[in-house]
Amino acid sequence: MTLLNVDIDLLRTFLTVLETQSFTRTAERLLRTQPAISQQIKKLEETVGTPLITRDRKAISPTTTGLVVKSYAEGIIGLNDKMLADLVDAAPAKIRIGVPDDYAAVYLPELFRVAARRLPETEITCHADLSRNLSKRVANGDIDLAILTADPDTPSLHVISEQLVWVAAPDFDIAQRPLPLVLFEDGCIIRDAATSALKNGKIPHRISHSSDANTMIITVINGGHAIGAMPRCTAEHAGLHQLVDCNLPPLPSVDICLMVRDRANPAVRELALGAIAALSPDDIAVDSIPA
């Protein structure tokens, strides 16, 4: 007889779906996407060879086989969590956090407060980079946790949406052509959004300044050398003059999201959920901490 191994993550997902009665809330709690949760349930059902849940408008219920799996799963996960609690220090010596430089001053203070409260003995190391680079570094395991601008092609956990705005010195002449821009370096999602908006609006423009440091971009804007585009939260934090009714094309909003390294230490997940609760308390429920 061939022995099969059941991934404990699949069992945890199964139990969480039954507890929350929602694939969406399960995804939020376990820091995964909803399609990933659906795939995990499907994989577990394929492993045991039969459906484990039934769904209607009112409830998600275990099948007869699902009840058996639920009973075993509760015992297996309980033993797993007890073993980790007994043998592994839940708080790692170091957690590596990534964030784009323009988000650092806005979001890191709250993240640091959460870390100081929940992980007082853990060293927090911070890495600034473009969002697209950070997502790759999280996927590669080089960073444990990142706050970044969402990319449609990369699964992530939504935290909050921010409107992009044009910013410039109060006396900047926006009629000059080509319009000088200061933006982050090539590969930045917001840079692409700003240049696409101007191109679609048929406004001649050029990138006169670029940098990987938000302080340099702010200096250029305050000096009256170019206009910039950034999330409203960043502009307000820096006290920059936002352009309204300026005959420039409207900018889209961006989703700011969280990415957590696969199979991250439970303390990293706890920090992530604590950060989400602090940054977006009305959007995501975090009533328990997954292992």
Mean pLDDT score, rounded?
Answer: 87
Look at the structure and give the CATH class of the largest domain.
Alpha Beta
CATH topology tier name of the largest domain: D-Maltodextrin-Binding Protein, domain 2
Count of individual domains: 3
| Shape-level CATH architecture of the largest domain | 3-Layer(aba) Sandwich
- The span between the termini is 32 Å
CATH homologous superfamily (4th level) name of the largest domain: Periplasmic binding protein-like II
Helix content: 40-55%
Strand content: 15-25%
Shape: elongated
Task: Give the low-confidence spans.
Answer: 281-291
How many beta-strand elements? 10
Largest sheet: 6 strands, mixed
- Count of DSSP helices? 10
Q: What does this molecule look like?
A:
The protein contains 10 helices and 10 strands. The protein is of the alpha/beta class and 291 residues long. It has 3 domains: 8-87, Orthogonal Bundle (Arc Repressor Mutant, subunit A); 94-157 and 256-279, D-Maltodextrin-Binding Protein, domain 2 (3-Layer(aba) Sandwich), CATH 3.40.190; 162-254, D-Maltodextrin-Binding Protein, domain 2 (3-Layer(aba) Sandwich), CATH 3.40.190. It has a 6-stranded mixed sheet with strand order 4-3-5-10-6-9, sandwiched between helices. It has a two-stranded antiparallel sheet with strand order 1-2. Strand 3 (94-99), helix 5 (101-118) and strand 4 form a beta-alpha-beta unit. Helix 1 (8-20) crosses helix 2, helix 2 (23-30) crosses helix 3 (34-48) and helix 5 crosses helix 10. The longest helix has 24 residues, at 64-87. The chain is elongated, with a radius of gyration of 23 Å. The model is unreliable at 281-291 (pLDDT under 50).
